[in-house]
Structure formats: C-alpha cells, structure tokens
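Sample entry follows:

_____
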Amino acid sequence: MASMELYRRSTLGTCLEATLDELVNQAAMTPLLAVKTLMHFDKAFEDALRDRVTTKATIKGHLHTYRYCDQVWTFVVENAVVKTDNQEEHVDKLKIVAIDAKFGQLASR
C-alpha cells in the first residue's frame, strides 16, 4: 500500500470511492478516470496536510497497543485527551496511523 492511500480510509476518502464506484457502475465514468481521480485525491490530501494544517495537538491517554510494520506505526490509545490550541476533546479510543514522511515521498514516485 502506498502511504498516501492511507487517506482513502478517511470518511472523505471512503465517500469518494463509493461515489466513483457508483459512477463506474452506471457507465458515467471509465474505470481509468476513477483511478486517476483517486490518485489526484491522494496527492491533494497530502499537499493540504503539509501546506495548510498548522495546528499541533497533544495527546494523553493509556497506550493500549502499538505496532510497526512496513514503515507504518499504528497506535491505539484508550481514554485519550486530545488538546489543540483552543479545544480539548475526550475520546474512549483513538487510533493513530503514522508513516515516515521520507518513505511517503519515495512511495509516491
């Protein structure tokens, strides 16, 4: 899995995939165009996160599990408190998926 394909698991990504599947099934779009659209989504998501998101978050909680596989870290934090500049959220379970930015650049070439 290319690193940018992780963004497809977001709500926005899954909705886009469902819509593209429907358009392909209705013959309103070719499968090739749907794949190109997903690739453009991956790149646009990465660019937006890199260039537009400036807020930093602090996360505290109980680290339930963690794993590292294929240069991807996955953390599951229970009873987490997520603090940003002006907001604080409490969540029962938080899953964090992180990939090395250098690996992401290599995978996208």
